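Hi C.,

You asked whether I'd gotten around to modeling the 190-residue construct. I have! Everything is below, sequence then structure, no commentary in between.
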Amino acid sequence: MKRRGIVYGFLGAIAAALLLIWPLALSAPAQQSVGGSPPLGDLEREYEVLLMPTATAYSVYTTSTAAPHQVWYRVSGGDALFRQRLRVYQENAGPRPINQLPPDSELRQELTTNTPTRWFRFPSEADVFTYYFEGDNRLTASSPWRDAFGVKVKRSRFSNGNLYEISFEDYEGLDDYNDLELEVAILQPA
């Protein structure tokens, strides 16, 4: 009888701990900040720089479901005249047309700085996903956010994924494409 009471007490304590932890697991962020950098393999190829003078965002995506993928990203810097904002979306679908973003329900993070950050990473996924990186700016702290005026992208292919160096332009004259700079890695073994 005493042993049964100890067992029930032990099971009750476990159940109480699970009830306390379970809501925390449901509200965990979609990505986490990490101290290291993405474990890219050997560099295989560097592509020509791509200028997109009418783009306000850039997307990376995977179409292969044969192996899981993982996306890492960070703000790497910038030399801006105006305040900068990066918005990151994750959508379980193929890419949308240029400058068309998913609904705000797919927004996963918003950073309002061009100061370098640590790397963030999404959990591994084994389905088709598209990740959108939108650059915005505003003249003053109280003015509304406006879209970037252009995007510059440099892609490098590694043995286990791609690294994208993405830069946004905050001036309509498209002068330097260095106002908000980020790095995005998509890891997926071949």
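If it helps when you're writing up: Residues 10-29 have pLDDT under 50 and may be disordered.

Thanks,
B.
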